Amino acid sequence: MNNEVRLAVLPPLALYVHIPWCVRKCPYCDFNSHERSGALPEQAYVQKLTSDLEGLLPSVWGRRIVSVFIGGGTPSLFSPDSIDALLSAVRARIVLEPEAEVTLEANPGTVEAGRFRGFREAGVNRISVGVQSFDEAMLKRLGRIHSAAEARRAIDAALASFDNVNLDLMYGLPGQTPEMARADIAQGLACGVPHLSAYQLTIEPNTVFWRERPALPGHDQCADTQVLIEQVLGSAGYEHYETSAFAKPGMRCRHNLNYWEFGDYLGIGAGAHGKVSFPDRVTRHERAKQPAQYMEGAATKESTVSVKELPFEFMLNALRLVEGFPPELFQQRTGLPITTIEASLQKAEDKNLIERDWKRIRPSARGQRFLNELLELFLPTR
Ligand code: SF4
Predict the structure, then answer these.
(1) Cα of 330 to ligand 1 centre, how many Å?
(2) DSSP secondary-structure letter at 236?
(3) Residue identifier of the C-alpha nearest atom 8 of ligand 1
(4) How far is the CA of 73 from the centre of ligand 1 (A)?
(5) In this predicted structure, what is the pLDDT of residue 381?
(6) Which residue ranges of the chain lie beneath pLDDT 50?
(7) Partner residues linked to 354 by β-bridges
(8) Ligand 1 atom 2, closest CA
């Protein structure tokens, strides 16, 4: 394979901002999140985020931001004033599209109505609430800091200020039966949010659950629960558009769609990752994970994605999309002709893991269920 990339058009550009603190670390969480001790250094952190963004600007001159996602950690621990200072600093340095989606992640137990109003005034227009379950015993088992009633109050408060609200739930939880998962989804639906995400719990290294492994439902039960969730949400008018994401028409998360369509994004904040394309290469950047090191200006890792790895990186994202992708998107984002992956596509089709016509390549129902098996077909050969 030739080692040069030639991109005729650059992808849309988004911005991810990482706020790395939480009230308490959940036992299943492998995100870059750190239990806070005392007051958060909000002002100093916003200043550091600002200089971090400034350092990235020369790589994206003239480009506009299509969406911003303030994730964590628990960004709702930051005051509306700090979020306002952050978004003002971003706007002063790079142009946001007029209709840019601006999401902030919030956790019940850290928000009330006045705080949501403040976030809206700061320019946030989408809220993602991390609930995980409405079952009291399960919330305790998951180490969450909130009750089911507090979760409902947080969602109601979010909906009072925002039309665009996502609710995160998990399934495949310790001791969870399909009926319990159905009850969680039903309660999520009853909240009236236009977007729901349902993630299967996986046990990750460097978590409490890794060391003290709880008994989880088996693979078949989890797969059945996923199908059940798809049916319940489908009949309630939610489109299943990505492995874990469901939205009412017109309410898909544009920021996440940009990841899945292998778009570009700047990543600022402790442990944040970014991807920036140039006409002749695709690069990645990664910030220091520890908040203290990040704030002290620890070195950033930068790398160029090798041409050999680009097809897998593209497929890793695009095959999460239930409707798949048009073949020309592969060429637009990787600079490589779709014929580069023809042998793998053919194998995937023979195994009934994808369906394709000249307009789209999409994972079949079987491919969605055995996504890892499907992705393995596109791994770069050594
Ligand atoms: S609230 Fe979210 S980010 Fe924080 S520890 Fe729990 S799962 Fe991780």
Answers:
(1) 34
(2) T
(3) 29
(4) 6
(5) 81
(6) none
(7) 363
(8) 73
